[in-house]
Task: structure prediction
Amino acid sequence: MEAMLPGVLGLITGLLLGLTGAGGGILAAPLLMLVMHLPLAKGAPISLIAMALGAGLGMLIGLRQGIVRYRAAFLMAGAGLLATPFGIHLSRILPNTPLVLAFSALLAYQAWRYWRGGESSTTVKLPCVLDSTTGRFIWNRPCALAMLRSGMGAGFLSGLLGVGGGFILVPALRKNTTLPMHSVTATSLMVLALISTGGLLQWSASSGVEWAIGIPFALGAVAGMAIARQLSPRIPEAPLRRIFASLCLLASLALLVKVLAGI
Result:
């Protein structure tokens, strides 16, 4: 049974990623820490394997459908990859306890945000607007800066906690652009796939990855992502959002208890 655990945890991660979008990957590392009892520095790169493959599958589907804003995705991913090494460096030198506490706080925030519900931007003066003729972004300084900031934040947290950064990318795209939600999700998945792949390569070069756990975990994530793509049209968004928020809160409390108990 223990040998099957990485695959089962990966399956759960893939389901969450496919059902809730790029932000669903935030539970990958906590699952590894709580169930497999891995320190964050070991769980982070394994979660990035699942993020890279699971988000990569979503990215390919989005590209086939023509809904990925790949120029914006490349810009955000490039900024994220520049920030990832700083997060990895901090993750390696900081003790496990403050990192887990920070992760617990991040999960609690994510739970609150999902329970409250996302808000589409209704502001007229958005940094990034679409050209009515070409359907592409009208690139200017405010738009580029907004994309760069969100990409760097996602990249830094990807290296530090192995979270991918989808919970930053999706709100940023909704806040700063007029993209429909399906395009926001597909574009953020492309950014997530690129940043996670780059972060995984950097982790491999610096301290290695537990591939014996990572490979079945990643295969499970891909299977979960494929299943979720079939299920997602049949599940209403509101209850799904509340369920995910509850899972984030439970994971946050479990990590907090784990730290306080000294386990």
